[in-house]
Amino acid sequence: MHVVFDGWPQRYDSLLGLNLLFGLFITVLLWEGNRAIFVLMRRLFPRYDQTTSRLVVQTLTSTIFTFLATVFLNEFHRLIFTVPLCPKGGIFSSFLLKMVPTLMVTSFYESIYFFGEWKKNLQRSEALARAGI
């Protein structure tokens, strides 16, 4: 995200490598954390008619996780680099920035799951109709 918003770094040093690794850590933490939430929600609300409940609980859980991860990452960055990841008072902005890809990935995964379940239900209905039930 820094490259997108600030451009490619003008100087290369050991901090650049550490920052790239930390960026990778941020990505993996948010991706895997939210993926675990998706898997859990699919176990708790597996049926097609539970889609609304799954989406509401999943969105709330994912939002809370992303906010807590943002706070954790800010403090972890302060511990490693002695400066916070976000400027003072910038946690909420950082959280909102992290929510954009989180919501995009959530929408993508949920769309695939929703249409897969819809297709299974359609196939079951057709099979029941053919069986005369």
Description:
With 133 residues, this protein is mainly alpha-helical. The protein has one domain (2-131). The protein has four helices and no strands. The longest helix has 41 residues, at 91-131.
Quickly count the helices: 4
Number of domains: 1
Assembly state of the chains shown: single chain
First-last Cα distance: 55 Å
Uncertain runs are: none
Main beta sheet = none
Helix content: over 70%
Name the beta content range.
Answer: under 5%
Succession of helices and strands: HHHH
- Net shape: elongated
Q: Got a strand count?
A: 0
Arithmetic mean of pLDDT: 83
Find the structural class using helix and strand composition: mainly alpha
Gyration radius, rounded: 20 Å
SSE layout and pairings?
Layout: H1 2-6, H2 14-44, H3 51-81, H4 91-131
Helix pairs in contact: 2-3, 2-4, 3-4
Could you name the key traits of this structure?
133 residues; mainly alpha; elongated
In a nutshell, what does this entry contain?
With 133 residues, this protein is mainly alpha-helical. It has four helices and no strands. Helix 2 runs antiparallel to helix 3 (51-81), helix 2 (14-44) packs parallel to helix 4 and helix 3 (51-81) runs antiparallel to helix 4.
